[in-house]
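In the design runs reported in the main text, the only information available to the sequence generator was the tokenized backbone. The following block is the verbatim input for one such run; it is reproduced so that readers can re-run the procedure and compare outputs position by position.
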């Protein structure tokens, strides 16, 4: 009996300790840690809407509706409808403020000086928000767009050399060939119309163009093979456009709901398709009669194999049981997503702006004719000619400023860091709304909302007061690794399209940019496309 009483007491104290420990952990996570993070910034003069336990400012965010200033042109109202609470809070608390979604503490940044400091901070102490990794796992896995630390560094070192200009030069023929296919399709559409004008939803075909380019240039595969991958990833993208995931609301992706089951199915199917692509490449590599590929997929496989060998000698960066095949699949998925859709959308918005400003469309076309002397296509082998397209470059830069595909830039402080006048505590999530930042009157001048490519006549450094606050490709060490590829492809595609076609805005076009992970046209970019004829034809 005495032994039983001792055991009962021991059990009682054990349960008590577990309960107390659990309460302390919950208190630390739900109250003390968030409060500490906020107090560090509040002591530095950073304020924001007062959070309520346990959901922070979620209720207020859901109640704030878009209200655009009366002075803003109607075509700019969409900017204020994306995340209206940001604009409301900016008016109340300034360009830097705190807000909360549950236990997560966020720092909104629209102060150019602070963004400059973030841009210049190149250490691994600033990374992608870790809480995004889990909900985005089916689509991006632990690929480069969502990884941090050594895992990110490993992938970056594999990719960076493949996007040097010297490598991109060898991809131009592929970009050109993909564009010519779209040109032939549009020419057929024009000739089938009695008025020789076709109304075309351009982003649909441009997406096919860029998907074809990335499939061939980076993975050595036909578009027919990659089409299934792109389609299934587009279906996943539609789900992940929900702001509840983006800003850290309650994540229920682990529940077996119909939506989640569909997501898990798509993830499995995409992984299998990419694994088949990898398997086909490995078979070709084993066949001595086949010429060994030198594309990005090949470099990824060789880099993974090299680290696997190092792991066997306890010198690799990953643990011996690390699933290297899944890492390769995830990295490929990231490239499929980032390398196609964003460029297609960027070209689409640029063509819309040129359709709205025909004088600039003609200036670009004239420059193309002068530079290539009417010898298009098959004229891009000389990279110096592409670099001479100064007017086109200015137009692209201005288009990326006003309608860049990326809407938000997000970072997590993985350690306490000093950024200019601020000490940023570990665990804070920093958010930058790019469309609003790129329209900041203090940085860009009173004409910040207007399409004026001439502002980039002397490059980005001459276009605004704080050039580091121009971030269409991201910022800091996490800047888009495919920036050179994207800019080159945009120049090739736009040169060919503007050489062949004239663009006007369709009367059926409805201007309604929306957030769908990227800045997308809600009702499609409908343009009137006609063939350009030259006197000597």
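Verbatim output:
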């Amino acid at each position: 009996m005495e032994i039983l009483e001792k055991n009962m007491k021991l059990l009682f104290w054990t349960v008590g300790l577990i309960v107390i420990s659990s309460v302390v952990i919950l208190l630390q996570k739900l109250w003390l840690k968030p409060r500490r993070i906020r107090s560090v910034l509040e002591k530095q003069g950073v304020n924001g809407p007062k959070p309520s336990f346990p959901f922070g400012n979620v209720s207020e965010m859901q109640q704030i509706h878009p209200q655009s200033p009366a002075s803003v042109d109607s075509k700019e109202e969409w900017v204020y409808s994306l995340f209206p609470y940001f604009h409301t809070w900016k008016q109340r608390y300034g360009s830097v403020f705190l807000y909360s979604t549950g236990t997560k503490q966020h720092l909104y940044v629209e102060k150019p000086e602070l963004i400059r400091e973030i841009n210049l901070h190149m250490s691994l102490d600033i990374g992608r928000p870790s809480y995004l990794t889990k909900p985005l796992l089916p689509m991006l896995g632990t690929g480069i767009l969502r990884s941090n630390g050594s895992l990110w560094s490993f992938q970056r070192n594999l990719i960076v050399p493949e996007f040097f200009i010297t490598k991109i030069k060898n991809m131009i023929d592929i970009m050109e060939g993909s564009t010519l296919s779209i040109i032939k399709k549009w020419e057929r559409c024009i000739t089938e119309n009695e008025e020789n004008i076709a109304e075309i939803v351009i982003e649909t075909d441009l997406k096919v163009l860029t998907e074809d380019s990335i499939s061939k240039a980076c993975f050595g595969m036909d578009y027919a093979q990659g089409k299934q991958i792109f389609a299934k990833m587009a279906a996943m993208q539609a789900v992940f456009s929900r702001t509840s995931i983006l800003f850290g609301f309650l994540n229920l992706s682990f529940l077996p709901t119909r939506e989640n089951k569909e997501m898990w199915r798509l993830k499995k199917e995409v992984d299998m398709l990419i694994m088949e692509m990898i398997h086909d490449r490995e078979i070709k590599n084993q066949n001595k009669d086949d010429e060994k590929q030198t594309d990005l997929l090949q470099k990824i496989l060789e880099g993974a194999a090299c680290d696997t060998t190092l792991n066997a000698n306890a010198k690799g960066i990953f643990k011996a049981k690390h699933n290297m095949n899944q890492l390769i699949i995830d990295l490929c998925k990231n490239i499929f997503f980032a390398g196609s859709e964003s460029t297609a959308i960027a070209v689409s918005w640029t063509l819309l702006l040129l359709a709205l400003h025909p004088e600039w469309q003609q200036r670009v076309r004239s420059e193309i004719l002068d530079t290539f002397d009417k010898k298009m296509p098959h004229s891009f082998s000389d990279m110096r000619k592409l670099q001479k397209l100064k007017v086109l470059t200015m137009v692209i830069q201005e288009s990326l400023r006003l309608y860049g595909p990326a809407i938000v830039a997000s970072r997590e402080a993985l350690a306490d860091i000093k950024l200019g006048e601020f000490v940023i505590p570990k665990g804070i999530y920093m958010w930058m709304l790019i469309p609003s930042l790129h329209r900041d009157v203090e940085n860009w001048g009173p004409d910040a909302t207007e399409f004026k490519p001439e502002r980039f006549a002397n490059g980005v450094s001459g276009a605004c007061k704080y050039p580091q606050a121009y971030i269409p490709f991201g910022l800091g060490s996490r800047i888009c690794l495919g920036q050179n590829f994207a800019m080159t492809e945009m120049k090739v595609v736009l040169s060919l399209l503007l050489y062949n076609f004239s663009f006007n805005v369709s009367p059926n076009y409805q201007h309604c940019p929306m957030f769908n992970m990227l800045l997308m046209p809600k009702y499609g970019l409908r343009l009137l496309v006609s063939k350009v004829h030259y006197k000597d034809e």
